[in-house]
């Protein structure tokens, strides 16, 4: 599944000050720190250069000890998108990269096919930002506010155009609901525009950063994939990730 990798960059933001699981980038999963597990998954995708963007010397040291490329960024960023924009200026000062994939540093079980799928919507030049979603199968997820729903229109070829994102059970009525997966691929110009914008009213109300882009008339399309990669936000998630990856190392 290798692609032209001359102009694509995967950035993995890693923040030590997680409120629910402090220090989680260095949490051990199957003998490796979580951030290294994510880096390995990103390297396996063979999309292009992979760089960890961190805010702590301990993460930097661990990344370097495993052969990963890493850059230090500010501890004061409000979001992962702000962190990857700073990292982009450091690692690509000549602006040679035109596609930036933000793979969250807490997705240790993500597979290369899922990362590749995030690029699919960008085949349409009208799309500014691409992301991922999957159809909700678990009835409990339909009403869970921690499961972000993508409300969109079907564009065919397993791609939806995002019209809105919500923590509510939406849309109403009969039909499938879609679980949004927080992995993004940006055109460089779109990322630059996005980080220049102030938080929008709906973003602040729903506490969903991607609504800032929609309110600024930026287009987000999502590739529909089969499964949700496990995001590690709690101790219970960490235990599950260790089970999943225990056989790989």
Question: How is this structure best described in words?
Answer:
The chain is of the alpha/beta class and 249 residues long. The protein has 2 domains: 1-106 and 232-249, Spore Coat Polysaccharide Biosynthesis Protein SpsA, Chain A, CATH 3.90.550; 112-228, Spore Coat Polysaccharide Biosynthesis Protein SpsA, Chain A. It is 28% helix and 25% strand. The chain has 8 helices and 11 strands. The chain has helices at residues 34-44, 57-65, 80-91, 112-117, 188-196, 201-206, 210-215, 235-245; strands at residues 8-14, 28-29, 32-33, 49-54, 69-72, 99-102, 129-135, 149-156, 159-166, 178-187, 220-224. A 5-stranded mixed barrel has the order 7-10-8-9-11. Strands 2-3 form a two-stranded antiparallel ribbon. β4, α2 and β5 form a beta-alpha-beta unit. The longest helix is centred in the middle third of the chain and has 12 residues, at 80-91. The two termini are 23 Å apart. The mean pLDDT is 92.
Structural class of the secondary structure composition? Answer: alpha/beta
Strand content: 25-35%
**Main beta sheet strand tally, sense and closure:** 5 strands, mixed, barrel
Q: Could you name the CATH class of the largest domain?
A: Alpha Beta
| Count of helix runs | 8
Order of helices and strands: EEEHEHEHEHEEEEHHHEH
Proportion of residues in helical segments: 25-40%
Number of strands: 11
Strand order of the largest sheet: 7-10-8-9-11
CATH T-level fold name of the largest domain: Spore Coat Polysaccharide Biosynthesis Protein SpsA, Chain A
Integer tally of domains:
2
What is the alpha-carbon Rg in Å?
17 Å
Shape: globular
Nearest-integer average pLDDT? 92
CATH level-four homologous superfamily name of the largest domain: Spore Coat Polysaccharide Biosynthesis Protein SpsA, Chain A
Termini separation comes to 23 Å
Poorly predicted regions are none
